[in-house]
Design a protein that fits this description.
alpha+beta, flat, four-stranded mixed β-sheet, 155 residues
Amino acid sequence: IHLSVWLGSMHKEILHKKYMPHLLILYKKFNHIATILTKKVAERKNEIEDKWDGYHIFEEAKKGDQICIQAIEEMTDTLGKGIANICYVLNPEIVVLGGGIMAQETFLKDRIKGAVKKYLVSSIEKHTKITFAENQNDAGMLGAFYHFCGMHLKE
């Protein structure tokens, strides 16, 4: 999961592989959210963890699997708490979510927005836009390429 915020005209990527492991939510590391999701589903179904990955969990949830849906709800609630904490500290205009699991935007969007709304006071929530990176998991790679071109391909 990658999270970027817009503070006025200044953009800061605040959670990426370098910093994300240091953000703790309920005594768990923030970057382990997807891993915890697969572990919860496997344990609740009494199956081996290798059988489950994010894609499989979301496909089963879309078919109505209540164990998968409940685990996703718990994950989005935890994510909402983390985003709310960041909003309280930085008060951003926009929070941009990216990373592999965010490819499930249609399934996650309302759940994440609802969780953030649950934990933010309305005066901050109504002025904070939650959006998904258009390029999903490729956003970081494209940003690095853009930066490289700007540094090395000057006319």
